[in-house]
């Protein structure tokens, strides 16, 4: 069964639009919001000092580069079942990088 050309074109556009969103510019405000809502309290508890930001600035940080930061955000999302979309993970990693890590 052949699809009309218009339907094929619309399917292709939908696919490309979805695929391109993974490469969109990160939304730092969304990353900050997610960090505050889903990350900060857990990190505050882990630090033992009630400050969730301390986990990002500690001297024995496990995060050594941008790819490692992205992997840690993805791991937290998976392990803790945070239900973040890939673009949300990218937003969080971009926010954390800008705020704390400053990787290029």
From TrEMBL:
Domain of life of the organism in this record?
A: Bacteria
Q: Does the keyword Ribonucleoprotein apply?
A: no
GO MF terms held by the record: electron transfer activity; heme binding
Residues annotated as signal peptide: 1-24
Keyword Signal present in the record's keywords: the answer is: yes
What does the UniProt keyword field contain? Answer: Signal
Q: What is this protein called?
A: Cytochrome c domain-containing protein
In its UniProt entry, the species of origin is given as Polynucleobacter aenigmaticus
């Amino acid at each position: 069964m052949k699809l009309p050309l218009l339907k094929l074109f619309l399917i292709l556009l939908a696919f490309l639009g979805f695929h391109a969103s993974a490469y969109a510019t990160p939304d730092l405000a969304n990353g900050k919001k997610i960090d505050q809502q889903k990350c900060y309290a857990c990190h505050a508890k882990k630090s033992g000092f009630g400050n969730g930001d301390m986990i990002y600035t500690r001297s024995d940080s496990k995060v050594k580069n941008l790819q490692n930061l992205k992997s840690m955000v993805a791991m937290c999302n998976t392990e803790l079942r945070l239900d973040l979309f890939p673009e949300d993970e990218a937003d969080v990693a971009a926010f954390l990088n800008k705020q704390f890590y400053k990787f290029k």
